[in-house]
Amino acid sequence: MTDIFNTPEMTPIRRKLRRQPTQAEIVLWSRLRNRQVHDFKFRRQYSVDRDVTDFFCAEVQLAVEADGYTHTFDEQWKKDQVRQRDLEALGIVVLRFTDDEVVNSTDAVIEQIATVALGLREKKPHPDPLLGKERE
Fold it and tell me: Do the Cβ atoms of 61 and 91 come closer than 8 Å?
């Protein structure tokens, strides 16, 4: 299988999305960046095949999406479901939160992300045992 992660042809799309973050993405990134959540490295606007995830942790194959108001419309919701199935078919777990949840219940969202990521780490330990352990 060819590499499907952060392919060069998706670079312009990722850059555009990074330059125009939503308020929820700004809030979430401030809490996920720099290994603040149990030393998990999250990347912002990370592409997998033809899709760009809001946040992605490669160590445990976890995508985190912050969905705004437009994601409540039937057409966009259906696209999101197809996209999620595509990611899940690749073994990626997808967590979705509304923008409102992220902005108004940030601690609860981070706690849920941490719980899922830690559970995935237990199931799929990092291939390098030194990288999979908590840093001292």
Answer: yes
Residue-range domain boundaries for the chain: 8-124
Helix (H, G, I), strand (E, B) or coil at 79: helix
Around Cβ 132, how many Cβ atoms within 10 Å? 14
Closest CA to 62 of 135, 131, 128, 126: 126
Taking only the tens place, the pLDDT of each residue in 25-61 is 999 999 999 999 999 999 999 999 989 999 999 999 9
95-120 b/e (C-beta count within 10 Å ≥ 16 → b): bebbbebbbeebeebbeebeebbeeb
Q: Give the whole-angstrom CA distance, residue 134 versus residue 103.
A: 28
What is the CATH code for 8-124? 3.40.960.10
